[in-house]
Amino acid sequence: MKYKSQRVTKKSLIWMVLALAVVGGATKYFWPASSADTKSSVQTVTTFVVAQRDFPVVLEATGSTVAANIVDIRPQVTNVVAKIHIKEGQMVKAGDLLISLDDRADRANYEKAQATADDAQRQLNRAEELLRQQFVTQGAVDTARANSQAAQAAARAAQAQLSYDNIRSPITGRAGIINVFPGALVQPGNTVSTSTTATATNPQGAMLTITQLDPINVQFTVPESALPALFAAQQKGQAPTITFQMGDGKKREGKVYVIDNQVDQAIGAVKVKAVVDNADQTLIPGQFVRLQVQSGNFKDVLVVPSQAVVTNARGDQVFLVDAENTANLKPIKVQTQSQGFAVITGINAGDKVVVEGKQNLRPNGKVKEAVAKTDGKPEAKPDAKPESKAEAHK
After folding, report:
1. In degrees to the nearest 10, what's the CA dihedral of 232, 238, 244, 248?
2. Taking the C-alpha atoms of 175, 180, 185 and 188 in order, what is their torsion angle to the nearest 10 degrees?
3. Cα–Cα dist 349/166, whole Å
4. Burial readout 240-251 (b: 16 or more C-beta within 10 A, e: otherwise)
5. Domain assignments of the chain as residue spans, ordered by start
6. Out of 77-81, 163-167, 383-387, which region has the weakest mean confidence (pLDDT)?
7. Distances (CA, A) of 9 to 19, 23, 274, 392
8. pLDDT value of position 230
9. How many angstroms separate the CA atoms of 376 and 373, rounded?
10. Using an 8 Å Cβ cutoff, are 274 and 255 in contact?
11. The domain 41-67+213-372: what is its CATH number?
12. Residue of 230, 236, 278 whose CA lies nearest to 257
């Protein structure tokens, strides 16, 4: 019995030794390097030398084209359409006759009022002559003058009523779809709607719309952080400019002429409008626009790639590489970012910052510059020999 116990003990010792060997090997496999070895490892990175230069502030924005001026043509009186003088899509000038309504009743009223006004004026002239001859009193002349003035006012009102029957364009622009036809009864206060059935189309509302297309405006929003640059450019007398391309591939340019007087707190942005030349009239209101806004230049500033900036709980920082190829975090302040670059302060021109490879980089870590590849292909070793076809198939 004692012999068996000693045998079991020896066997247990053998298993314990094997278990410790396995654990030691796994430890060495999963944690192969000590802390000293980790510190001595070199991280391959891509660096950028901080440059001091003029930096144009370019913002990306989206917006839409809007008309500089647009007018819905509506009747001011209830009447019947007599004649339409323009065609749909026609260019019209301010003052051009668009639509004529049936003016027979209004013209008769005007002629009657004008005749009454003319008679009242003659009565006034006669009363003044009789006053000079002392056949009437001054009171009679005053009454005649009041009657004449009232009749003249009634004639002018009738003339204004008659003018409503000739509807003219208040602006220069392009006419849209005409929603009325000769013989249609129109009246003020209609709502814009068009109903179509299988047999007829019944238009109601604005008779047509005149839209000014040249120039045309582009409305967009910019973040609140972009306001200082926009205001600085305006104070220098340099209107911020915009550029964009439409489907035809033609580059368009415009100038910002108004910045809204309040910030939309829901999105932290402000509305901006720019005027764009549209002589060919290929832009119409409502088109989507993806544009770039150049809001000025920063003079003699430090510029680094935006990718180099590390943002964490301590703020904005960059990994600064010293002469011994050791990287350390350096606090900075970002003034603005545009087109993949950032204007910063806190370091000096000529300093070297890490752009790529900073994910696994730690403070006081050693780094080395990645080999640049111009063609994007692996570089061939100078002593490499081309293998034979037989070796290639092995």
Report:
1. 170
2. -40
3. 72
4. bbbebeeeeeee
5. 41-67+213-372, 69-100+166-191+202-212, 103-164
6. 383-387
7. 15, 21, 92, 58
8. 84
9. 5
10. yes
11. 2.40.30.170
12. 230
Q: At what angle do helices 104-132 and 138-163 cross, to 10 degrees?
A: 160
**Residues 221 and 271: beta-carbon distance below 8 Å:** yes
Is the Cβ–Cβ distance between 392 and 69 less than 8 Å?
no
| This model's pTM is above 0.70 | no
**Nearest in space to 178 (alpha carbons), one of 81, 281, 77:** 81
> Distance between CA 394 and CA 390 in Å, rounded?
7
CATH of domain 103-164: 1.10.287.470
For position 379, what pLDDT does the model report?
43
Cis peptide before 203, with omega less than 30 degrees from 0?
no
Q: Please tell me the least confidently modeled range out of 2-11, 127-136, 150-159, 359-368.
A: 2-11
* Residue whose C-alpha is closest to residue 257's, from 277, 275, 233: 275
Class at the top of the CATH hierarchy for domain 69-100+166-191+202-212: mainly beta
